[in-house]
Write a structure and sequence with these properties.
Order of helices and strands: HEHHEEEHEHEHEHHEHEHE
Largest sheet: 8 strands, mixed
Shape: globular
Radius of gyration: 18 Å
Number of strands: 10
Helix content: 25-40%
Strand order of the largest sheet: 1-2-5-6-7-8-9-10
């Protein structure tokens, strides 16, 4: 690929609020996916006093070729983490919070009970805060999905990430049908909980494959959708095959809405948790 196009230049944001968030995260010993995944939006989000909290440690048991999160042998589950997350939500006076995690295939429930504890802790100190959780596939364990759903967050998200044909090369240890099954489980167990997913483009997928993925997500009840440009974290990660134009992102958004998604965020810098609260403004 040639150099990044002009529409992928990250704007400057005030670093004062960013520093405040970083200091608070350090004090409370909390992690964010913003830092671990080298998200291009982290300066903007930190400037707006928002962050996507990363629970269950910083080490993933899988090694997906697109992801910048470290992989290896994770540390034991931190039982006090839910209370510290809740304290961060209280200090920031968040109206909306997103919680995600590394994949923990080493845990019997994949971390489902820990997600539930985090949700419950937030509800105790900030009952008006809307809660979105971005969960791993839990190895396809529907009991873990139900455990999270029973804690009653407002949104449960699981990213499909890419089209079916690219799973073997992009998502090590994952399975396309299993990920669709997670969304279906959310739909079955969730009641009023909104099911959400996200896809990256620019990895070599075809237009028809993207549209087919939209259809597959709708069939299992997905309501919210994010579509963003894949950006390779380093030269050793999966390469960028194409930079998708803003016009194509708009086209994908229009098609997704026509297919029945209630909320669609589509653009080069869109990530699964970026401006996630906007879904409730549609």
């Amino acid at each position: 690929m040639t150099g990044k196009p002009d529409w992928l230049r990250v704007p400057y944001y005030d670093e004062k609020e960013s520093a405040y968030i970083s200091d608070m995260l350090g004090e409370l010993r909390l992690n964010t996916v913003c830092e671990e995944a080298a998200c291009p939006n982290r300066s903007e989000c930190y400037s707006n006093k928002t962050a996507t909290f990363l629970i269950l440690g910083k080490t993933c048991t899988r090694k997906c070729s697109f992801c910048n999160v470290s992989s290896g042998h994770p540390s034991p589950v931190d039982g006090d983490e839910p209370q510290r997350i809740a304290e961060a939500v209280r200090r920031l006076n968040l109206a909306y919070v997103v919680i995600t995690s590394v994949t923990r295939d080493d845990l019997a429930d994949g971390g489902g009970s820990h997600f539930a504890s985090v949700i419950s802790s937030i509800k105790k100190v900030s009952p008006k805060t809307k809660i979105e959780v971005l969960i791993p596939d839990f190895g396809g364990d529907y009991d873990s999905i139900k455990t999270v759903a029973d804690a009653a967050p407002d949104v449960i998200s699981h990213n499909i990430e890419t089209v079916a044909s690219l799973y073997e090369s992009v998502r090590s240890g994952a399975d396309y049908k299993r990920s669709l099954g997670v969304i279906e489980g959310v739909t079955n167990f969730g009641g009023t909980i909104h099911a959400k997913s996200g896809i990256m483009v620019g990895l070599g997928e075809t237009y028809d494959e993207v549209i087919e993925t939209f259809d597959d997500l709708r069939k299992v009840g997905c309501e919210f959708l994010t579509i963003g440009q894949y950006l390779s974290p380093t030269k050793s990660h999966y390469p960028v095959y194409e930079y998708i134009t803003p016009e194509m992102f708009d086209k994908y958004a229009d098609i997704a809405r026509q297919k029945g998604f209630l909320h669609v965020a589509s653009g080069p810098f869109v990530r699964s948790s970026y401006h996630a609260d906007k879904a409730f403004e549609d």
